[in-house]
Write a structure and sequence with these properties.
Elements (H helix, E strand, L loop, with lengths): L6 H61 L3 H7 L3 H29 L3 H37 L1
């Protein structure tokens, strides 16, 4: 069974083994990169939901505290509705981005990349939108606080 192999065939077989090892390394690298990509996406989605949700809770706690105070402060506190709306929109964007990411992955898993790409782009835009509304809501809240209490 172990027939002698001529030098040219042996060289070719060694080259094939080298290519197989290189391709295996390439596949391993791609798999690890994909896992890292998923972890980054999850961190971004969680971060958007966390910062906007935390800000919304902080605004609600502030309003609950202020509501029992002077009537003039209560009237001024009504302007916090706008920042609260931004923060709640950010939470909605974060949750919707998770749904978009799920749909994109479903299509990618079934090798329907053209159908998955719009969901992937939508998910990215929603996360970016969630960050933007957080910044706008924070600026509006800071503006309200400085006008009311300073």
């Amino acid at each position: 069974m172990n027939e002698p192999v001529d030098p040219e065939t042996r060289k070719y077989l060694l080259e094939v083994e080298k290519w197989k090892a290189e391709y295996g390394n390439f596949l391993d690298w791609n798999i690890e990169s994909f896992k890292a990509l998923i972890q980054f996406a999850l961190a971004a989605i969680r971060g958007v939901v966390l910062i906007n949700g935390g800000a919304a809770i902080a605004v609600l706690a502030f309003l609950g505290n202020v509501w029992s105070k002077d009537e003039s402060i209560r009237a001024a506190a009504r302007t916090m509705q706008l920042p609260l709306s931004f923060f709640l929109s950010g939470v909605a964007m974060g949750v919707t981005s998770a749904a978009a990411a799920y749909m994109a992955q479903v299509f990618f898993t079934h090798r329907k990349n053209k159908a998955g790409l719009p969901f992937q782009v939508l998910g990215i835009l929603l996360v970016l939108g969630g960050l933007i509304v957080f910044v706008i809501g924070s600026l509006k809240a800071a503006d309200f606080l400085t006008q009311t209490f300073v």
